[in-house]
Q: What sequence folds into this?
């Protein structure tokens, strides 16, 4: 089961996905709300890790509160990033278990250098972080480390891995997409070229 713990938060935060199953994890930690209380309210038992799509503040500001409260380890792309305690690096094309499924980590810079997307061929789920969003929106490239050409390459790389059987797109902001999510990623590739 995948639950967005930030779904109704009226503050500047990323989405925070609680992925329950054989290895229950949190995808991103969010910011500016009491995620610890929301984890306790939604989870009967423990979880094992926080897995980061990237380290922008809106995705990691709650991280210390989560690790203090639950004593879990943090997984991300680059353990050398200052100010974020990443215990385990996830390599490009490495696999990580989220819930009941193995996901392939795809290094997808352009929004931020340490950005990862996570894709499970079975059951065709994509955690896209801030690479792409609903309705063809895509990650901003006007921040430090942002680069539009690199972002387009990253979107195209994801498009090469997924197909029209994609069942869910869980983005870092906005709603998850379960109605033809592949089309939203494809549209983001086109829109990024036009902007």
A:
């Amino acid at each position: 089961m995948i639950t967005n713990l930030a779904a109704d938060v009226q503050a500047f935060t990323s989405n925070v996905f609680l992925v329950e199953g054989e290895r229950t994890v949190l995808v991103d930690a969010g910011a500016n709300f009491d995620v610890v209380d929301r984890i306790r309210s939604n989870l009967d038992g423990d979880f094992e890790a926080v897995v980061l799509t990237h380290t922008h503040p809106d995705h990691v500001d709650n991280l210390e509160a989560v690790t203090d409260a639950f004593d879990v380890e943090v997984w991300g792309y680059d353990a050398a990033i200052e100010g974020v305690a990443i215990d385990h690096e996830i390599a490009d094309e490495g696999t990580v278990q989220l819930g009941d499924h193995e996901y392939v980590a795809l290094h997808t810079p352009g929004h931020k250098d340490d950005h990862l997307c996570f894709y499970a061929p079975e059951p065709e789920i994509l955690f896209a972080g801030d690479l792409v969003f609903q309705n063809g929106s895509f990650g901003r490239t006007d921040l430090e480390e942002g680069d539009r050409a690199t972002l387009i390459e990253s979107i195209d790389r994801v498009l090469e891995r997924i197909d029209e059987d994609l069942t869910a797109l869980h983005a870092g902001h906005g709603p998850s997409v379960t109605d033809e999510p592949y089309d939203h990623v494809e549209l983001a590739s086109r829109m990024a070229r036009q902007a």
